[in-house]
Structures are given as C-alpha cells and as structure tokens.
Design brief:
mainly beta; 7 strands; seven-stranded antiparallel beta sheet; 2',3'-cyclic nucleotide 3'-phosphodiesterase fold; 141 residues
Length: 141
C-alpha cells in the first residue's frame, strides 16, 4: 500500500497526449500518481487529507534509458525529494517506477501542464486494474 495523489482521467489523458512522442514504444506507461508516502495515509504528511483534490503543475521532465517522469509543483505534500509523476518505465531492462526518484537531469516543459488528482490510499495489488492495464497495452487512456 502507498499514499498518493492519484490523477484524474483528464489529467492522465493530457499527460499522455502531450508526452506520447517521447515514450519509447516498448515501455510500460503509468501516468497514474504522485507518491506522497509509502504505506498508510496515517503514516505520512497528508494524514488528514484523504479524498482532498489538489492541483498539480507538470513543469519539467526527465528521461534516461530506464524511466521517464515529469516534475510536479503542488501544495500536496510528499516525502519524495522531487515531486514527480512517473510516465513510463523500460521493463525490458528490469526498470521500476521507483527509479524516477533517482533522475537528475530535469528539463523545463515549455508550456507547463495543469493537472488534478485526489489524495488516496492505493493497494498495490489492484492499482492498475483491468481497464487501466488494457489502456497501457493500447498506449492510450
């Protein structure tokens, strides 16, 4: 389980449509959330914010041969040093979304993207249900 600012469908679609051309075809797409903390909401900085909606601004991006993420500005707290949303990972080389925490070369997005999401507790076993998994296979949301 983890606590996250889960993006709404319109925000996922916006991220994907604006960044799709940068995503290598064989990578797994996420565009799902900004992590607040690992574990339960009560153990993190957003313990009184369950269900609260926040605005996020995607203002930068970073990409290497393993992961792709956008840098985020938001009033929603996060334990991550750099707030971000993982866009995609190269699972063929064993990459995991957590590796976005190690990205170093962030480039500005010329026209920042306005996104929104809801503070949620996410059960890792069901976070990418059948509908979303199908979306990942077709590279759209």
């Amino acid at each position: 389980m983890y606590t996250a600012l889960v993006l709404d469908k319109a925000s996922k679609n916006l991220l994907f449509s604006r960044l799709n051309s940068l995503i290598p075809k064989e990578w797994k797409i996420f565009c799902h959330h900004m992590t607040i903390n690992m574990g339960s909401l009560i153990n993190g900085p957003a313990k009184d914010m369950l269900g609260q909606k926040f605005t996020l601004i995607a203002h930068s991006f970073a990409l290497n041969d393993r992961v792709f993420a956008v840098g985020i500005q938001s009033d929603c707290p996060s334990k991550n040093q750099i707030k971000h949303v993982t866009i995609a990972v190269n699972q063929q080389v064993g990459a995991k979304p957590v590796e976005s925490n190690c990205l170093e070369s962030w480039n500005p997005i010329a026209k920042p993207l306005l996104l929104s999401g809801i503070v949620s507790e996410v059960d890792e076993g069901i976070k990418h249900g059948n509908q979303e998994a199908n979306s990942e296979k077709t590279r759209s949301f």
